[in-house]
Amino acid sequence: MIKVDRILYSSVVYPHNYGFVPRTLCEDNDPIDVLVLMQEPVLPGTFLRARAIGLMPMIDQGEKDDKIIAVCADDPEYHNLNHLSELSPHRLQEIRRFFEDYKKNENKEVAVNDFLPADDARAAIQHSMDLYAEYIMHSLRQ
């Protein structure tokens, strides 16, 4: 799902479709973010099938704010990719640089760490699904 949650403060644009994984919750009280590589842009509110190929650990204003890097499972250009190592170094640098710079005009500090493999991305998704389930169970008990 793609949700408009901010208007960027400068002329930078997201390098790919950006959204979140439904039914997840992270330590920042938001769903886990996902950048989906595919040939075409999609409209906000679009659901699509994606496969995690890596994780970009990030700290935003002192809080953990990791990003899942995924590919659209139904896009013929990307559907065979399974690992970040299959992307060009330029593509990874483009993604990193965007997230290092996109909040500069808001005077917000962001730190991007080294990319991690698909297993780490899947573990992060599972952890955020577990946090979401705990949150729902806690809400039902109240």
TrEMBL record:
Keywords: Hydrolase, Magnesium, Metal-binding
Gene3D superfamilies: Inorganic pyrophosphatase
Cofactors, names only: Mg(2+)
GO cellular component: cytoplasm
Reactions this protein catalyses: diphosphate + H2O = 2 phosphate + H(+)
GO terms, biological process: phosphate-containing compound metabolic process
Metal-binding as UniProt keyword: yes
Enzyme Commission code(s) on record: 3.6.1.1
Source domain of life: Eukaryota
Keyword Cell inner membrane found: no
Single GO MF annotation: magnesium ion binding
Enzyme class of the recorded protein, top EC level: hydrolase
Family designation: Belongs to the PPase family.
PANTHER family: INORGANIC PYROPHOSPHATASE
Protein name: inorganic diphosphatase
Organism: Aegilops tauschii subsp. strangulata
Taxonomic classification: Eukaryota, Viridiplantae, Streptophyta, Embryophyta, Tracheophyta
